[in-house]
Amino acid sequence: MKNVKFLLSAACTLFAVAAMAQQDFSGPQYAKWGDTPEEREKNILNSNFLKESYDNRDYDAAARYLRDLLNSCPDASVAIYQRGANVYKQKINRAKNVTEKNAYIDSLMQIYDLRAKYFGDNAKQGLAFILDQKAREYLAYKPNDRAGIRKAFREALEAGGDNADPETVVAYFSNLCDDYKNTDEVMPDEVIAEYDRLSQFFEKHPEAAEMKGQFDTAFGVSGAASCENLEKLFGAKLAAAPDDEALLAQAVALMSRADCSSDFFLATAEKFYAVKPSSNTALSLAQVFQNKHDYAKAMTYLNEALAVEKDDAERQKLLARIGLVGLAANDVSGAAAAARQARDLNPEDGVPYFVLAQCYGLSAASCGGFAGQATFWAAYDTMSKAVELLPSDSEYLEHAKSALSTFRNNFPSSEECFFNELQSGARYTVTCGTAAGVTTTVRPR
């Protein structure tokens, strides 16, 4: 079958050659193919042979025709470069060793450079398009040449300007952040400066919100987005435009992600909350005020946000945080009430169970006697549920696990269960404290 294909291809080529022999190549439309009719005929034939060789997967022959065309008529047709790039991609994939592969990669990059030189003014696929493609290929084929990758993407973005592909912007910036984290080639000031510069690109492209999110995330996790660096970046910008809502939102989002707690962050977040109240900002402020042991201020923001929030998922987050703050403030009954509401809104979140279990354990002391000891059964059950649901990276998980042992050590003894006429495995309803009414199982210590 393969032989038949080659025979048909050869036959088609012969027909094409015969047909071309009867053509007149002296017309101006053929001028780019050579200085004389004979040169033009030869180059057009070589262009046809390039296509045939590529279609037949004879990439060595295709590369020879390509070299001849680039030497004799480099500005004849953009198709030469389109096919040439495909030829060298195939040769790269089939290279026998690293040296050969690198040589083919260099040839591919030269194809893009020549295309940019001769067809950079193309209306549809001009310089910006060509350099964008080159940058992506450079990243794919030369992943270890970090400086070369950054250079290729910068050239592409410079050529694209405001019309650059947002995906290319993110690819460049993500690699820049990776280089900051993994090498000593990029300094934090460069990452911050590029973030500042490229943020303006996304301001002009509000439709690229998803790409903007990836852009911000790359900066947020880069390590360059430290609280100190962010304060330098946004301090000057907010001084110049203190009421810019978009700028305030960006500053609060990035500083929240970096767990900032400085006076600058609090002032910025409170100002943004006053302009545009939201659950996310309230949660960020509450976390900082909780860390500062200003529980009243934390509760103020959380309750204000809860009063106007309609979305159940956001209400659940606020209630869970209210429970945590209440627990820290030793408001056991308030924390338990908020945790129950949060649990009812999302039974698969481990945090409300974590809060409730501690509330049960803390209130056991106020019960006294056997009733207080029995409360630890409910505390243990609830904390076990928290351990089951909390993710492995939760900041509460280890505390929850250690609490299980504490609760178990406070169970009533066998004798105490006997004197209260309770057998192991029987059902028991807690009668006091925040766990009153909770049904659990009798388990002697």
TrEMBL record:
<keyword id="KW-0802">TPR repeat</keyword>
<keyword id="KW-0732">Signal</keyword>
<dbReference type="InterPro" id="IPR011990">
    <property type="entry name" value="TPR-like_helical_dom_sf"/>
</dbReference>
<protein>
    <submittedName>
        <fullName>Uncharacterized protein</fullName>
    </submittedName>
</protein>
<feature type="repeat" description="TPR">
    <location>
        <begin position="279"/>
        <end position="312"/>
    </location>
</feature>
<feature type="signal peptide">
    <location>
        <begin position="1"/>
        <end position="21"/>
    </location>
</feature>
<dbReference type="InterPro" id="IPR019734">
    <property type="entry name" value="TPR_rpt"/>
</dbReference>
